[in-house]
Structures are given as C-alpha cells and as structure tokens.
Specification:
The structure holds two protein chains of two kinds.
Chain A: H1 2-45, E1 51-60, H2 66-89, E2 92-97, E3 102-108, H3 112-120, E4 124-125, E5 128-138, H4 141-150
Antiparallel strand pairs in A: 1-3, 1-5, 2-3, 4-5
Helix pairs in contact in A: 2-3
Chain B: E1 2-6, H1 8-17, E2 21-27, E3 38-47, H2 50-59, E4 66-71, H3 74-82, E5 88-91, H4 101-109, E6 113-117, H5 118-122, H6 126-141, E7 146-149, H7 161-171, H8 176-183, H9 185-192
Parallel strand pairs in B: 1-2, 2-3, 3-4, 4-5, 5-6, 6-7
The chains are: A alpha+beta, B alpha/beta.
C-alpha cells in the first residue's frame, strides 16, 4: 500500500517537473529570439558602406578635362539634392579618358541613383555645350575599366 | 518623348541616348529623311475657351497627329478629358490648379494621359515644385497614364532615359516602373492607336 502511494507521489512530481521545464524552455526560447533579433538589427545597421563605380561618356563641343567634369557633376548634385547629399555621396571621377570622353565616377552605394540623375542634368561644362551619359554601374574598378573599353555609346 | 524643335543634330544625339521615336512640335528643314529615329508631328492646343478648343480640334488631323491640350480653365480641362480626339492633357505650373480629384477621375474614366514637361519639373520654384509633386503623385497613385516630355529645343536639352527615371524616382517619389512606362509604353500605346507599327 505504502509503495503505491510513493509511486503516485513520484508520478505527480515528475508531471509537475516536466510542466515547469516546458514553461522554462518557452521563456528561454523567447529570450533567445529577442536577443537574436537585437543582434540582427545591430548587424544590419553597422554594415560597411560600399563603393560603386558609374561608367559614363560625354558628348561635348570640344574636349573637357577630368577636373571640369567632376566639378560640373558636383554642381548639379548640390543644385538638385543639396550639400548634405553631395558630402554623403562623395562622388569622385577616378578615371577619365579625354580623347574618347569616357570615365568612371566613384560613389557611395546608397547614393548611386542621385548621382546618375544629376549626371543626366549636366548641360554645359565650363561654357561648352556638353552632356554626360551614364552607361553602367559596377562594383569594382576592374569591371568599370572593361566597360570603358567596350562602351560604344 | 516630346521635343519642341527637331533638327539633324538633335536626332543624332537622341539616337545615341536610346530614343527611337520622337514627337516634334516643329520639324526643322534640315531634318534627314529615313533616319533611324522616327519623328511624328505633335500639336499642342492652348484652350482658353471651349469654343476655341472645339474649332482647334476641328482643324487638327487627329488620326495622324499626336494631340495634346493645354487647358487654362476647368471647363476646357473637363471637356478635353472626355473628347476622344485628344491624346494627352498637359499640366504646367500655370494650370496645375485645375488638376484636382474630379479631373483625375474623369481622365481615368476616359483613359486620357497626363503630360508633364521636364523643364517644369526642374526649373520652377520650390513652392511650385511642391505643388507639382502632390498633383503628380495623386495622378500616378490613381493609375492614370503619365507621359514625360523634354520640350528640347537643342541637343543639350535631351536627358538620358536612365537619368530621367532616377530623377523622377528620387525627386518626385514616382515608382521607377511608372517612370519607365511614361517613357516607353504609354507614348507607344498612343502612337499605336494612330496606326503606327
């Protein structure tokens, strides 16, 4: 009789312990998810800014220099999007072939659209009639060089 | 793409930029025949009174010419929206106050396109640009066909298509797909209705 009571008590205890274990596990899973999401949010915000290279060509009356092209593109970005965007985008003409009028602009990846839009609005460079045509956006300078070589626009 | 004045240099640059069909208000004498870029005549009718609009539409060969109405009053805007001879209705900073919700619903019902010219989007004051932004977005969000014209008089006034799309999406919050359609599909549909292959 005594043995039966003991087994019954043990059974009840084991059931209670398993319920407590389930509750604890669920809580820890919730904590685990919360911590994981916090970490994920942190990783997305701290992503490294990447560079993009925009290959472009110019159609001008006469030849233009690298400095003049960069200046005119920067002026257009300031005119339409402001100084803040210009500083954040930090466009820089890294390559420019004066003979064929093709070049590459390096910008921050989040501001590619702004720079492409501003490039199309260039109408003159240092008083000479000129338009800038964006051809392609690449992730590496090596690929941009390839596009400069084979661009037929 | 609408061009104010077509000449040989402008057509050459348009081809380089990737425009294959242009609607010109004035065609210059030296425009070469058989050029790869196709040129169509475009008539912009300024409608101050209903009677003027009626008489102007009577004189235009609407089966061959791309007809755009520039309404000055609410009456002419509503009338232009339901006239089948009209292809698009031009919105500028001067007449944009008449483009309200009712005008949008009439234009949507009769499938009329809204036309906007690039200089108005770029070179007006910030206050007017704000007003244009609100109206453009209202029309675009109500799925009304939208056409962008350049009003170019010289080759330097032409803007590369990719820059134009990015400009509309960054400055006017127009979805890139809609901006692309405004340069390609919508004008093409209008030209197709005139029997152009």
């Amino acid at each position: 009789m005594m043995l039966e009571y003991v087994t019954l008590i043990l059974l009840v205890l084991s059931i209670a312990m398993s319920i407590a274990l389930i509750v604890l596990l669920r809580k820890t899973a919730r904590y685990y998810k919360a911590v994981k999401s916090m970490l994920e949010a942190k990783t997305t915000t701290s992503k490294k800014p990447r560079k993009r290279y925009i290959v472009f060509t110019t159609l001008c009356e006469g030849s233009v220099s690298q400095v003049e092209v960069e200046k005119s593109i920067k002026e257009k970005i300031t005119e339409y999007y402001g100084q803040g965007t210009l500083h954040k985008a930090s466009p820089h003409v890294v390559l420019f072939d004066e003979k064929v009028g093709r070049g590459v602009v390096r910008v921050l990846h989040t501001y590619v659209d702004y720079v492409v839009a501003a490039m199309g609005l260039v109408k003159n460079i240092e008083g000479r009639k000129c338009i800038v045509i964006p051809i392609r956006t690449t992730g590496t300078l090596k690929k941009a060089r390839e596009y400069i070589d084979r661009a037929k626009v | 793409m609408h061009v104010q004045r077509c000449d040989s240099r402008l057509l050459e640059v348009a081809l380089r930029l990737g425009y294959f069909t242009l609607a010109c208000s004035e065609v210059h004498a030296d425009t070469p025949k058989g050029f790869y870029v196709r040129v169509f005549e475009k008539a912009i009718i300024t409608a101050e009174r209903l009677s003027d609009l009626r008489s102007a539409l009577r004189d235009v060969n609407y089966k061959k010419v791309f007809v755009t109405v520039y309404p000055v009053t609410v009456e002419t805007a509503r009338w232009a929206a339901h006239d089948s001879r009209v292809d698009s209705i031009l919105m500028t900073p001067e007449n944009m106050k008449i483009f309200d919700k009712r005008q949008a619903s009439v234009m949507k019902y009769y499938a009329k396109a809204l036309e906007v010219h690039l200089p108005h989007l770029l070179y007006t004051s910030s206050e007017l640009r704000g007003m244009l932004y609100r109206r453009l977005n209202m029309f675009v969000r109500s799925n009304i066909a939208f056409v962008v014209g350049s009003s170019a008089r010289e080759w330097v006034d032409l803007v590369p298509p990719i820059s134009l799309i990015k400009l509309l999406s960054t400055q006017y919050d127009i979805p890139e797909k809609t901006a692309l359609l405004s340069l390609t599909d919508v004008p093409r549909q209008i030209l197709s209705s005139k029997g152009v292959q």
